[in-house]
Amino acid sequence: MSPELCYPVEKFQALLHAAELSTLAAAEFLSQLDTALSMSDFVAEVLHKQPHLVAQWAQQPPSLQTCADYPARLQAELADITTEEQLYTLLRQFRNREMAALSFCQSLNLMSVEQTFTALSQLAESLIVATRDWLYPKICQELGTPVNKCGHPQPLLILGMGKLGGFELNFSSDIDLIFTYPEKGETVGARRSVDNSQFFIRLAQRIIKALDQHTIDGFVYRTDMRLRPFGDAGALALSFAAMEDYYQEQGRDWERYAMIKARLMGEDEANPYHQQLKKMLKPFVYRRYIDFSVIQSLRDMKSMIEREIRRRGLVDNIKLGAGGIREVEFIVQVFQLIRGGREPALQHRSLLTVLPHLVQLNLIPADEAQALQQAYLFLRRVENVLQAIDDKQTQLLPQNQSDQVRLVHACRRFRCLSQNGQWIEVENPIDDWQTFYAYLQQQQQNVRNVFQHLIGDDNENQPNQEHDSIWRDFLNSYQDDELSSLLQQYSFTETVHNELLAVLSRFRNEIQRRQIGQRGREVLNKLMPCVLDKLFARADISNVLPKILNIISNVVTRTTYLELLQEHPAALDMLIRLSAASPMIAEQIAHFPILLDELLDHKTLFNPPPFSEYHNTLKEYLMRIPQDDEEQQIDALRQFKQATLLRTAAADILEVLPVMKVSDHLTYLAEAIISAVVNLAWRQTSERFGTPDHLQPEQKNFLVIAYGKLGGIELGYNSDLDLVFLYDAPANGQTVGGKRSIDSSQFYLRLAQKIISIFSINTRAGILYEVDMRLRPSGAAGLLVSSLTAFETYQQQDAWTWEKQALVRTRAIYGETALRQRFEQIRSAILATPRDVAQLRQEVSQMRLKMYEHLAETQTDLFNIKTDPGGITDIEFIAQYLVLANTPNHPELSHWSDNVRIFDSMAQVGVLSAEQTKQLKRCYVDLRNEIHHLNLIGKKSIVSAEQFSVERAFVREIWHSLLGD
C-alpha cells in the first residue's frame, strides 16, 4: 500500500486499545484493518463508536460469507425490542456496522463489484422489511387490523424502485419506495375502526420516519416516495385497484421506465398478493408488441439528459455527466421498454443480466456491449468507493488529494464476476490521478459513443460546416479600421455605422479578455460568423445586434450553450426572431441561459401545455430535485416559470395564441406554481411543528383565494399575485407529530409566512412572483391568514364597498373541494346581499375618482391604458358595479370572476344589450392585447391619446349611462 493511504498511527493504536486488542495481533488482519480505515472515514467513525467490532473482526474478519443472512440476524436482534426508540437505535447501529463490514470487503477486494451492490441491496431490503414487520403489529394495536370485506387481514406491500429494485444499490444511496395494499376495507379489533387507507398511510409514515429520521446514531436510509402515483400529491399508500386505475389511465412513459426496476421487498413466490401485484403491473411496463410508440418519449428523455448535462455543468459527475452511469442505464432500459413485451429475456431488473441478451437478440453489437459493461463496472466501482469514504451520496469526483489517492488505489485493481460467477481480477492502467482521470474519461467516451449511436434522433440537426463568411476572422484578427471597412459594405448611415462599430468593437474586446477554454474558443469562432451573417441580413440590425451579443457574452464561458446555438441553426434563428420582437425575452435569456434549451423544440415552444397539464408538468419537473433540498426546489420553480413564460411569449409574438389564451396560460401557470409552493411550505412547516390535530391524512383545510387579475383569469406578463389565505380549524386545536407543538391558528400563520417567503426569496433565478396580501380582511393591519368564519363575518359586517368590488374578482385556486365550495357559498351570499344602488353608485364613482387623481396620466397627449378614463380600470369598475347592483335580483350573476363572462351574463339577464356587451368585450380585449404587447417590448402601458379614441369614448358613454358623472 502506498504511504499516503496509511491510517494515522496514533489513531490506529488508540482504536486497538479501545478494542482491547494488542498490536501483536495477527499481522495480516492489522494490515487489512489499516487499509479499510485508510480507505473510509465512515469505517473509522463506526469502529471508534463500536470498538468491540474490531475484536470481533480480528476473530473473524468480514468476508463474502459473513456479509450475508441479514434477515435472520436482524430478526434475532429485534426479538427483545419493545419500543420504537429502541427500534431506531438498533436499525441504525445494525446498518452502520454491516455497511462498515461491506466497506472493509470492498477496500480489500474481498467482493466483486457486482457482489458489493447486491449485498448492499440485500441489506437495505432486510432493514425495510424488518421495519415494516415490526411496526405493523404496533399500528394494529393502535388502529386495529386492516381486513377486506371477507375479513382477511391485509398486508402492506413495498415496491423497491431504481437501483434497490435491480439489486444495484449504491453504498450511500437513498431508496425509492412505493407502498400498496391489496383491498379496501376497515380495521377490526380496536375501539374505533378506520379505513384501510388511513391505516396503511399511518404505517407508511412510521416506516419512513423509522428509516429516514436522523438521530444520534445517524439514519438508516434517505427515503424518497416521489415515484408513487401522483407523486407528492398522492396518498402514501394506494390499494391495488387504485394503483391499477392510475397506471391504466394516467401512467406515463417515464413511469413505465421507472417501473422496469420495481421489485417487491421480501418477495414470496407463494404469496398470492405478491403474484397478483406483479401480474397487475407487468402489462403496464411491458407491452405484448414491439412498442415503437415509446420511441419519441425516449428521445425526449434523452434530450432531457442532454439538457441537464448542459444546465448543471455535469463535467465530473460519474452518474449524471456525459458518458456516466445514467446513460448506460438508459441504453439498456430503452430496449427493455421497446422490446421487453416480446422478449422475456429482457424483463430482468439487473442491467448486467439484460446486457448479454441484447447481444444475443442482435440489438447491440458485442463490442459495444462489452464497452458498456466494462465502463459500467468501472463507474460503479468509482461510485461505491466515493460514497464509502464518508457515507455521503455523491457522484462528484473529489478535489482533495487524499480522496483522489483512495480512488486511484481502489480502481487500479478490483474484482468482477465472469459469466459463470467466478471472480475475475481487473487491472487498469492507473498509477496516479492523471492516469485515473484519463482512463475514466476514456470509459465515459466509450459510453457516450454508444449512447449517441444507439439513441439517435432522425431529425437531429447536424453540426454546421465551417462557415464561409466575411466575419470569419471577426474575433481573431480584425482591428477597428477593418471592422469599419466591413460595415461600409452594408451602406448604413453614418450614425448607424458608428453605433454598430461601437457595439461590435466592445463585444470583441470583452471576449478577448474572458477566460474561455480552447474548445469554447473553437466553437465561438465557428458560431460568430453564422450569427453575424444572420443579424446583418435584417433591417432591424441596430435593435437586435446588442441583444444577441449580450446573450452570447453571458454564455461565452459555457461551451455547451455555444454548441447548442452552433449545432442547431433553427434554434439560433428563433433566438434572433424572439429577441428582436421582445426585449423582455432577450433580457430573460441573457440572465437565465437555461432558457436556450427551450428553443430546440419548436413544437413545444409554440405549443404551451394544455391548462390542465401545468400541475403534472411541474410535478415531473420537480421530481428531478432532491425533496430535502429547499434551495434547488425554489430555484426549479423559478426556472419552470421562466421556461413556460418564454413559451407563452413566443406563441404570443408569433400570433399562435390570442390574448385571452395568453392570459389563460399565465393564470394557470401561476396556479400550478402556487400549488407547488403551498405543498413545499406545508412540508417544511409540518416537519417542524407537525400538523393540526383535527386533520385527516393528506388533509390541509387551507385555501388560497385569488383576487384581481389572477382571480379574473386575466394575468399579464408582469402581473403580481393578489392573494388571501384562509383556513378551517377548531378554536383550541394544537399541532401533533412535530418537534414543537403550537396552536393550529399559529400553524397556519407560520404556513402563510413560509409561502410568502418562498415567493419572495431573491435567488440567482430571481423572485418567483410579487405577492400582494393587502386585500385580506383589514388590509395590511389584518392577520396574514384568517379563518373562513372570520372572513365571512368581516365581509358581512366590516368590509368596505371597494372590498366587495374586489370580491367580485375572486376564485379559490387551492384547497379541498369542500372548502372551495364553502368559500363560493360565502362569496355568492355577500355579492347577493341587497344594497342601496344609489349609494353603491356614489361609492364606486368616488373610489374611481380617487384613482384618477393618484394614477391617471397627466400629459394630455398620452393615454394610460390601465388608469386613464375610458381604460381598463373603468371597464373593470363597470363589471364590478353591475355584479353588486344586480346580483341580489339575479343570483347567477355572481358565478363568474372574469370580466368577459360577467358581461356575457349581464346580457343574458337583460342588464346590458347584446350590442353593448359585444362592444365592451371588444374594447376590453383590444386594450389588454395592447398591454400584453407593450410588456413584451419592455414599454409601459402608455400610448398616444389618439390611439383607442373610439374605444375610450364608448367606455365613457357606458360609464355615464350607468354611474353618471
Report on this structure.
The strands form six sheets. Strands 2, 3, 5, 6 and 7 form a five-stranded mixed sheet that branches. Helix content is 58%, strand content 7%. By secondary structure, it is of the alpha/beta class. The model is unreliable at 458-467 (pLDDT under 50). Helix 13 (295-312) packs antiparallel against helix 14 and helix 14 runs parallel beside helix 18. It is globular, with a radius of gyration of 33 Å. It starts with 8 loop residues before the first helix and ends with a helix. It has 39 helices and 18 strands.
Give the SSE map.
Elements: H1 9-18, H2 27-39, H3 41-49, H4 52-59, H5 70-78, H6 84-107, H7 113-143, E1 145-147, E2 157-160, H8 162-165, E3 175-181, E4 186-188, H9 196-212, E5 223-224, E6 237-239, H10 240-249, H11 253-259, E7 263-264, H12 272-285, H13 295-312, H14 325-339, H15 351-360, H16 366-390, H17 401-412, E8 413-417, E9 423-427, H18 433-454, H19 480-488, H20 494-513, H21 518-536, H22 541-555, H23 559-567, H24 569-581, H25 583-591, H26 602-605, H27 614-623, H28 630-653, H29 659-689, E10 690-692, E11 702-707, H30 708-711, E12 721-727, E13 735-737, H31 744-760, E14 771-772, E15 785-787, H32 788-797, H33 801-808, E16 811-814, H34 817-831, H35 837-855, E17 862-864, H36 872-886, H37 899-908, H38 914-936, E18 942-944, H39 949-963
Parallel strand pairs: 3-5, 3-6, 12-14, 12-15
Antiparallel strand pairs: 1-4, 2-3, 2-7, 8-9, 10-13, 11-12, 11-16, 17-18
Helix pairs in contact: 2-3, 2-6, 3-6, 5-7, 6-7, 7-9, 10-12, 13-14, 14-15, 14-18, 16-17, 16-18, 19-20, 20-22, 21-23, 22-24, 22-25, 23-24, 24-25, 27-29, 28-29, 29-31, 32-34, 33-36, 35-36, 36-37, 37-38, 38-39
